[in-house]
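Troubleshooting log. The previous structure file for this entry was overwritten by mistake, so regenerating from the original sequence record. Sequence copied from the archived sheet and checked twice against the printout by T.R.
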Amino acid sequence: MTVIVVMGVSGSGKTTVGTELAAWLGVDYAEADSFHPKANIDKMSSGHPLNDEDRQPWLEAIAAWISDHQASGGVVTSSALKYRYRDILRGGGDVWFLHLHGDRELLASRMKTRSGHFMPVSLLDSQLADLEPLRPDEFGIVADISRTPEEIVDTTLSAFKDRR
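Regenerated output below.
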């Protein structure tokens, strides 16, 4: 089965949409942040962006989760900012991307109002600079985060059902 990767920069609503989507589909859900080694969380918490070397074991762990869920399907979040990061995730098996996208002001506003998250607003611009849009060889859709989570899930379920 296909695993849906809910992607986007910090503050885009990956957790909210991902958990609701998994519930609708009746599949397992995994939060990408839980795959980060402590060193990555410490680095981001101190205001320093991750580099490709930092992200490699994190992406490989998510790809392993995707591989483990090929029989049952699943939903996992990941910023998946760059094409080559998504390529690592695709190495885990059949994936379909839901890219949550919105303007910087809305993203920053969301980041400022959430509590208990390690990612500071100061790292938003580095994520936006790294973000590469989905390419034609990547299956999925882009959803506008100004819509409600319910609207995004409805659109996603319809597009996912009609995929390929």
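The first strand starts at residue 3 and ends at 7. Archived copy saved in two places this time.
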